[in-house]
Each structure stands twice: as C-alpha cells, then as structure tokens.
C-alpha cells in the first residue's frame, strides 16, 4: 500500500506555482482497497471526480480525499 507522500512523480513545485497531483485508477483502487473496475464506475457516475486524458482516467489527490471524507462508512453488525 502506498501512502500519500509516496505518490509516483511527486516533485516539489516552484515557489508560487500551483500544482495538482493526479493518481491513476490503479493507485486510487489501492488506496480504497477496491477493484480498478469499481474506481472506473465511480468516475463514470460522477461520484468521484477525475479527468480523462488519452483514454485514461486521472484523479486529483484532493478529489480522492474529498470522496473519502464524504463516503458513508459501512459498519458490520457486531457478533453476538
């Protein structure tokens, strides 16, 4: 599992320059611990924000963080 600070291609921005870090669908799937196909369905439905470039989805790190914050937590019933 990768951590936020281990995103491939992450380079420091020049002073005053605004950058947006993007993740691949595979990286998003790893972080959410779901199949890539589910990430693509989330993107296609608009539940997760992303950009499509050259027939590949890219997800801004901020959009993934927002999705995680807004996603309902499914809890399992306690075992009795």
Task: Explain what this protein looks like in three dimensions.
The protein has 80 residues and is α+β, with helices and mostly antiparallel strands. It has a domain at 20-70: Arc Repressor Mutant, subunit A, CATH 1.10.10. The chain has helices spanning 25-32, 36-45, 61-70; strands at 22-24, 51-53, 56-60. It has a 3-stranded antiparallel beta sheet with strand order 1-3-2. Helix 1 crosses helix 2.
Give the DSSP E fraction (strand runs of 2 or more residues). 5-15%
Q: Write down the secondary-structure element order.
A: EHHEEH
Low-confidence regions = 1-7
The largest sheet has its strands arranged as: 1-3-2
State the separation between the terminal residues, measured CA to CA: 32 Å
Computed Rg: 15 Å
Do you know the CATH architecture of the domain at 20-70?
Orthogonal Bundle
CATH fold title of the domain at 20-70 = Arc Repressor Mutant, subunit A
Largest sheet: 3 strands, antiparallel
- The total beta strand count reads 3
So what's the CATH class of the domain at 20-70?
Answer: Mainly Alpha
Mean pLDDT: 81
Give the % helix.
25-40%
Shape: globular
List the helices and strands and how they pair.
Layout lengths: L21 E3 H8 L3 H10 L5 E3 L2 E5 H10 L10
Antiparallel strand pairs: 1-3, 2-3
Helix pairs in contact: 1-2
What are the salient characteristics of this protein?
Arc Repressor Mutant, subunit A, 3 helices, alpha+beta, 35% helix, single chain, disordered N terminus, 80 residues
What's a concise summary of this model?
This protein has three helices and three strands; from the N terminus they run βααββα. By secondary structure, it is α+β, with helices and mostly antiparallel strands. The radius of gyration is 15 Å and the shape is globular.
